[in-house]
Amino acid sequence: MSGVIYWLDMAGVIVFALSGVILACRSRMDPFGMLVLAAVTGIGGGTLRDLVLGVRPVFWVTDPTYLWVILATVGVSLVGFHYIHRLSRGFLPVADAFGLALFTVIGTHKALLLGTSGVVAVLMGMMTGVAGGMIRDVLAQRVPMVLREEIYATAAMAGGIVYVALQALEVPLTFAIAASLSVTLGLRLAAIHWHLALPVFAWVTVPPKTHDEAAAPLSTPQKAKERVRMIRRERTRR
């Protein structure tokens, strides 16, 4: 199963790198900008995970194949630029959803192998799936997907919980991986399609009047109300 995990990791790098290339094209970046966005998206989350878990050196230093995969993804994208340019707006979030599901499983699995608790493993899986996309969006001057209203990090957390729970029950690894992928990907795609979101809690405030609004002439009903207030204030003073 170590080979399956490795190839899933490579698939996640390719998908996330491609999402970085697509966003770079839409942001009118040059090839170097495409490479930067592809790299931070493909290996950014895993790098942060390894640093937090104390893994030295990080995974792509010990195995430079990840870097070559990113370079190949960018190279193929440059050759097929016109095809990428014609992709619909919905392709980026869908590709990002697949990368999120794959990296969530990889991050959770690696954290468990290092002997962390289930809670930490879930957080590491979410970090692996979310952090690279956050860095990508920030560099492209966009609001990161994880900070938008649609369900994103919650989907990764749910997938990580499913994986940890099934591993605790000693379910076969293949089934645990498939279940975690299905939960994360299903929740994210459902959120994209139906615009599902968590409830938002916010204070309701009344904005103060601007200078123009305060200086605007009052209408007849407003004048009458203001006249009544003045009369009441005069009576109170007396």
UniProtKB/TrEMBL annotation:
Disordered: region residues: 213-238
Transmembrane segments annotated in the record for this chain: 6-25, 32-53, 65-84, 91-112, 118-139, 151-169, 175-194
Topology versus the membrane: Multi-pass membrane protein
Compositionally biased region (Basic and acidic residues): 223-238
Domain of life, per lineage: Bacteria
Compartment(s): Cell membrane
This protein's UniProt keywords: Cell membrane, Membrane, Transmembrane, Transmembrane helix
InterPro entries: Gly_transporter
Location of the Glycine transporter domain: 6-78, 94-167
Membership in a protein family: Belongs to the UPF0126 family.
Protein name: Trimeric intracellular cation channel family protein
